[in-house]
């Protein structure tokens, strides 16, 4: 408090919010200090507190230079559709299988690792810009290097340019893979020429961007490309401290019917161990099982390793930051405090869409249409709801069904509701926790019903302004 010139009561209040009833003479543990620092927006360096805007959540313990060891590069593949991103990743994996004779089927966890000349490279399967832009937006660390795939027979296209902008915005160096050189119409020179117009000058032409001609189809140039990735990584001197609590980002997450929440974590610093407690976004839990990209159970995962974990209580979001913490209790507290923070934010946001709010907008003449998304268990009831609801109108407003379908309420429904200002009606279907969480965050109302009449009643009431907030 002294160093930060904030009052002790502020700190005690914040601790109380975290469920810690501390007094002024009490010691608090390291994990708590980290959360607290996050709360007051400062950065902690072991032993001293540094005032600095904290953009990276809990990423506050700075590693001493002597603790840092070289780590493998994390790579994303970007480029225009059909230029060969998927094929290139496949070709890279195949190169690796023959080289390391490890064979076996790799399971899909959103990332894969390849060995070349005894050195590891991590590839993210997530489409390029998501791999770093979305992650960085949440303060997570994404890819170190972007491979920009450009088809030699098609050259620079809109998404190529988009990819360049994303990589540049994230400060991630680009290696150009000029693909499809096996094709008769291939013209690598034209690709290099066109790239200059977008600020990329390849080495062969006196610039500093590495460009490698490849064929994902024949495998030509792939090894060379991988070696160039290693070369680029070497120049970047990528380092991490394996001897600290792990941190990194969530690459993928889903709810498995039998296993519960399953998340792929990319460890970017520290070492993750099975049995440890982690907090990832607003979810937390102890790692029950940890597997690598090949599906093998592992106990430890060092820097630049992608692992799939079981044991989280909730499904985190791709791009969320994760941190290992010493105690499960602390992990839970952090997750809970983030959840309530989010809830407050959602409440504060006025773009949220609920039937009540829509009604007040109707009253003020701001809207003339009540947008609904209808999801139901069987086509019969969805159809019945649609036709009954569409008939509803009064002098001020009418109902518009912007989307309807059979099946559970999905993230895409929530997104659609967000862009169209709609309320989602679920008839005999419920959203998953992940979808509810998303809706809550986005301020989208999901109302579920079992009786058609009740739906009609509520919508009618909303239109007339008599909707009971409780339902
Ligand atoms: P993505 O949309 O960027 O992921 O592109 P895909 O990997 O799906 O490839 C698009 C099409 O190009 C597919 O039909 C591939 O078989 C083909 N393709 C990809 N790489 C090559 C290549 O090096 N040579 C040839 N001839 N075709 C390729």
Automatic annotation (TrEMBL):
One of its GO terms (cellular component) is cytosol. It comes from the Bacteria. Keywords: Cytoplasm, GTP-binding, Initiation factor, Nucleotide-binding, Protein biosynthesis. Residues 70-239 form the Tr-type G domain. GTP binds at residues 79-86, 125-129, 179-182. It is found in: Cytoplasm. One of its GO terms (molecular function) is GTP binding. The keyword Protein biosynthesis applies. The keyword Endoplasmic reticulum does not apply. Residues 73-221 are annotated as: G-domain. One of the essential components for the initiation of protein synthesis. Protects formylmethionyl-tRNA from spontaneous hydrolysis and promotes its binding to the 30S ribosomal subunits. Also involved in the hydrolysis of GTP during the formation of the 70S ribosomal complex. Belongs to the TRAFAC class translation factor GTPase superfamily. Classic translation factor GTPase family. IF-2 subfamily. This is Translation initiation factor IF-2. It comes from Aminipila terrae. The chain holds residues 447 to 917 of 1015 of the full protein.
């Amino acid at each position: 408090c002294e160093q930060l010139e904030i009052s002790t009561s502020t700190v005690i209040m914040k601790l109380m919010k975290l469920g810690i009833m501390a007094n002024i003479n009490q010691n608090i543990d390291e994990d708590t200090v980290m959360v607290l620092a996050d709360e007051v927006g400062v950065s902690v360096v072991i032993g001293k507190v540094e005032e600095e805007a904290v953009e990276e959540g809990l990423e506050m313990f700075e590693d001493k230079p002597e603790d840092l060891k070289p780590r493998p590069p994390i790579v994303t593949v970007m480029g225009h559709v059909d230029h060969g991103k998927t094929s290139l990743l496949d070709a890279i994996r195949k190169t690796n299988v023959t080289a390391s004779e490890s064979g076996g089927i790799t399971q899909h966890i959103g990332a894969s690792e390849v060995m070349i000349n005894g050195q590891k490279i991590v590839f993210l399967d997530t489409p390029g810009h998501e791999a770093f832009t979305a992650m960085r937006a949440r303060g997570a660390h994404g890819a170190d290097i972007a491979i920009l795939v450009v088809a030699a027979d098609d050259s620079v296209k809109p998404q190529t340019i988009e990819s360049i902008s994303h990589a540049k915005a994230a400060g991630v160096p680009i290696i150009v893979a000029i693909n499809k050189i096996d094709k008769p119409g291939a013209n690598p020179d034209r690709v290099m020429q066109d790239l200059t117009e977008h600020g990329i000058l390849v080495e062969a032409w006196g610039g500093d961007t590495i460009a490698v001609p490849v064929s994902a189809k024949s495998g030509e140039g792939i090894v060379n490309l991988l070696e160039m990735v290693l070369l680029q990584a070497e120049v970047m001197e990528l380092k991490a401290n394996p001897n600290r609590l792990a941190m990194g980002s969530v690459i993928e997450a889903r709810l498995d019917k039998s296993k519960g929440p399953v998340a792929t974590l990319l460890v970017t610093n520290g070492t993750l161990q099975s049995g440890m407690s982690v907090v990832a976004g607003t979810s937390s839990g102890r790692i029950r099982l940890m597997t690598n990209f090949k599906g093998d159970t592992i106990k430890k995962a060092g820097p630049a390793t992608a692992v799939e974990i079981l044991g989280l209580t909730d499904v985190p979001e791709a791009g969320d930051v994760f941190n290992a913490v010493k105690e499960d209790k602390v992990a839970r507290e952090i997750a809970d405090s983030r959840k309530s923070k989010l809830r407050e934010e959602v409440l504060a946001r006025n773009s949220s869409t609920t039937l009540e709010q829509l009604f007040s907008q109707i009253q003020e003449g701001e809207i003339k249409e009540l947008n609904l998304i209808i999801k139901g268990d069987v086509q019969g009831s969805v159809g019945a709801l649609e036709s009954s609801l569409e008939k509803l109108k009064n002098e001020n407003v009418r109902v518009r069904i912007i989307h309807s379908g059979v099946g559970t309420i999905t993230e895409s429904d929530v997104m659609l509701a967000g862009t169209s200002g709609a309320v989602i009606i679920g008839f005999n279907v419920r959203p998953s926790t992940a979808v509810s969480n998303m809706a809550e965050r986005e301020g989208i109302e999901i109302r579920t019903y079992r009786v058609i009449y009740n739906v009609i009643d509520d919508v009618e009431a909303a239109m007339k302004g008599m909707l009971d907030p409780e339902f």
